[in-house]
UniProtKB/TrEMBL annotation:
Leader peptide range in chain numbering: 1-17
Name this polypeptide is given: Putative outer membrane starch-binding protein
Organism whose genome encodes this protein: Sphingobacterium allocomposti
Lineage, highest ranks first: Bacteria, Pseudomonadati, Bacteroidota, Sphingobacteriia, Sphingobacteriales
GO cellular component, one term: cell outer membrane
InterPro entries, per the entry: SusD-like_N, SusD_RagB_dom, TPR-like_helical_dom_sf
């Protein structure tokens, strides 16, 4: 098999050499996103000047806004429809498996995500590897450090999504060299990298974030679109809550550092996802609770709302076909049994439709946290981290149940719900269940539920019994088991790289 790929690489090398001959005669006079070109002495130049660096840096930020499929859309499909919060919505062959647990390596949604994540890693690596060699004195030392830090935070964000989806994935921190017949053995692993263990991936994420914090920009209360120190701290809190690197004291530490950075719960939950009274703009951006968000404005709007419901700035547009991530009856019952009207009305809405895949067409629910083309996509927010702190206080070796309950009550008070009862506050198990329910209601349709179940080993007890509670869910194809905690590596990726192995159970 390896000999076969060597043959392919030699062919590529031959083509590269042929092209190289013409480069000597006709040097490159234009630059691309992949390579800037070759200088007058034949040396590779990744960035010709500061302007090229700034353009590439902006391309990292553009991913949060413009590549919404893998950064947002598909994560909601996994986080909510693969869990008990939602149904797939559409009956499409690539989407329905997330609801009925029949996902296979042939799924094109997962293949799209893997490929785009790896493209993002390559973007980050290019900036990290080459920024120090840019021959432009107007690019200061402090700017080089800051831009490299931002790229490391971006890379950590990518790998955090990947490792939670697939577990063992390749760790790539370099830029592959051009292939020649002389170096093919040396560069083979760069083109066909092996998977690294889940723990190693988390260690790389931690390393990137810790190295980034000193040079990353500080939190700016008026601009929550930057890869700031606070973004790194939020991600570290999430990383230390996961099993491979679990350290609950670190979760608490980074949650507290975010508080010191000025983050707090927004007084009105509607400020996070609401719109102005005339439905022409987002109600509020850069809230005290938002840690990182992609922002949209009239004229350069957020198309992903088409996939989930109505765009309230263009009410009838793109509303003739079934939408993804339809709220489940089980989630609706959870909101109603809790009397949680505020978060219920901000999380879902009911419209009349022309389809009835899951509900009668005259009263059909839709997720509502992205309700227009000008609403922000909030990647990380403080309520998530605050509830992770409560989780850490409950589950650490020396639990502090009162402090954990106080955090949960703080979240509940904003939703105009009563404080937890004394019996719940005094029981570790009962408080843990209350926390999981609170996270479900607070973070519904933010792509968190599935990962909460995985992190707390709740997949089997929750997902194998949801069919007893939810009459509207499509029939389950396979039961959930220990293999379900990872999704399948896309088959076309396995076909391209003989050094990758499929996750067990697929």
């Amino acid at each position: 098999m390896k000999r076969f790929f060597f043959h392919i690489l030699i062919c590529v090398s031959t083509l590269t050499a042929l092209c190289g001959c013409s480069l000597i005669k006709d040097p490159l006079d234009s630059y691309s996103d992949v390579t800037e070109g070759i200088n007058e002495v034949g040396e590779f130049v990744a960035f010709k000047d500061k302007a090229a660096v700034l353009s590439h840096r902006q391309s990292l930020y553009d991913q949060i806004r413009d590549r919404q499929e893998h950064w947002y859309l598909d994560l909601l499909l996994v986080g909510d429809a693969h869990a008990d919060n939602a149904y797939a919505g559409t009956t499409g062959a690539e989407v329905l498996p997330f609801e009925n647990n029949s996902i296979e390596g042939s799924n094109s949604v997962l293949a799209r995500d893997w490929e785009r994540y790896m493209e993002d890693v390559a973007r980050a690596n290019k900036l990290i590897v080459y920024i120090d060699s840019v021959a432009d004195n107007t690019l200061t030392t402090s700017e080089r450090r800051q831009f490299k830090a931002e790229a490391k935070i971006f890379r950590a964000m990518v790998y955090f999504d990947m490792v939670r989806l697939w577990g063992d994935v390749p760790i790539i921190t370099t830029v592959a060299r051009d292939i020649t017949s002389e170096n093919i053995e040396e560069v083979y692993d760069s083109y066909f990298p092996e998977q690294r263990s889940e723990k190693e991936v988390y260690e790389q994420i931690k390393k990137d974030l810790l190295e980034a914090i000193p040079d990353a920009p500080a939190n700016n209360p008026t601009d929550k679109t930057r890869f700031s120190k606070s973004v790194a701290r939020a991600l570290l809190a999430k990383v230390y809550a996961e099993k491979p690197l679990r350290d609950y004291n670190k979760v608490i530490q980074y949650a507290d550092e975010l508080s010191s950075d000025g983050f707090a719960l927004e007084e009105d939950f509607a400020n996070l996802f609401g719109m102005t009274d005339d439905k022409t703009d987002a109600r509020k951006r850069n809230t005290s609770e938002s840690i990182l968000e992609g922002q949209f404005f009239a004229g350069n709007g957020n198309w992903v709302t088409w996939m989930f419901g109505r765009d309230l700035t263009n009410y009838d547009a793109n509303f003739t076909w079934a939408k993804w991530v339809t709220p489940s009856r089980d989630l609706i019952n959870a909101f109603q049994s809790e009397g949680d009207q505020i978060r219920f009305s901000e999380s879902m809405v009911f419209y009349q439709t022309t389809w009835s895949n899951y509900y009668p067409a005259n009263n059909y629910p839709f997720m509502y946290k992205i309700r227009s083309a000008v609403n922000s996509i909030i990647k990380y927010r403080y309520a998530d981290i605050l509830l992770l702190k409560a989780e850490a206080l409950i589950h650490r070796d020396n639990p502090d149940l009162n402090a954990a309950a106080a955090i949960i009550d703080q979240i509940r008070t904003r939703a105009k719900l009563p404080r937890l009862s004394a019996s719940v506050r005094s029981s570790r198990d009962a408080l843990s269940e209350a926390l999981l329910k609170e996270r479900r209601l607070e973070l519904a349709f933010e792509g968190q539920r599935w990962f909460d179940l995985v992190r707390l080993n709740k997949v089997e007890p929750v997902m194998n019994t949801v069919y007893d509670r939810d009459s509207g869910r499509r029939s389950r194809v396979y039961p959930f088991n220990s293999y379900s905690y990872r999704l399948p590596i896309p088959q076309r990726i396995l076909d391209q790289n003989p050094n990758l192995k499929q996750n067990l159970g697929y």
